[in-house]
Amino acid sequence: MGLVLALAGLLWGIGAMMKAPYSARWSMIGVLYVAVLGMQLVLPEANPLRQGTGGSLAMWLMIGGAVALVLSYRQGLRWLRKRVPAPDQSPGQPGDAPFSDTELNRYARHIVLREIGGLGQKRLKDARVLVIGAGGLGSPALLYLAAAGVGRIGIVDDDVVDNSNLQRQVIHRDDAIGTPKVFSARDAMVAQNPFVQVRPYQRRLGEEDAVTLIADYDLVLDGTDNFETRYLVNRACVALRKPLISGALSQWEGQLSVFDPASGTPCYQCIFPEAPAAGLAPGCAEAGVIGPLPGVVGTMMAAEAIKVITGAGAALRGDMMIYDALWSETRKIALKRRGDCPVCGEDTRA
Q: Are residues 266 and 304 in contact, defined by beta-carbon separation less than 8 angstroms?
């Protein structure tokens, strides 16, 4: 029997040296096994060759049966594993799958925070956040939402990257000039965190699709620079009872607030009943803006989003934060709901 085992080891070693596939090596072992069985069946009992290979047919049949049982068990396990659908844990696909080791390590600084913890991080992973505008405010907000592990992030913007954007819109690179902002932003976010799902919507939000699109998300961040879109987004969020985090900036000053009438706080139109007359609220192209200011306000918007999703701390519901970068001052003012607001007032709730 020892001779047969030594010969089997020699055949396996030769196959390994020749880099033969495992199936070929097992085939050689199988041929040897059949040859040994043949000797036990054909040769006389006193034959030296039969004696040298064990001298017992029953012993070799038991060995063959044991090996066949082990191989059948392994093959059965493989078949069962193929039949059971694996949970989707691929990067960019939010869901109920537990965190991978990489994700746990990535979000460890969140998880050790008492106000967030594992449950809060799971809420971030399950959250769906829509960011309208991939410009100055959207750039830092999108990057930090992706870094924080928000499971699904939508981006709405119809513009393309321009050289003049790069002074403040830090999500875009010089080689992305001429590329739609939603795709430039998506690439940067996925490169930063492949475990989030990013949905780009290259369009200008309109009356016909605002409600439909916002309905697919839990929370909206508005970083647009025109009042028409701001009022449209506000109406859709109020109708769908979705919290709206709105930011704005000009020159050296920025502001943000969380508008959530479903929680008893004002909506955007409560505070800004009408758009200012033409020329009274010039955009960044006309009035200018210091480059880091959108980063400060956009990052604050991302922080408010994390608080709203996880329930940590006190979000800016019913308050507006005003940041003056020129004089390094921050003020917070209380906001009141208007009963005659055409969007969330008493008449609209009747």
A: no
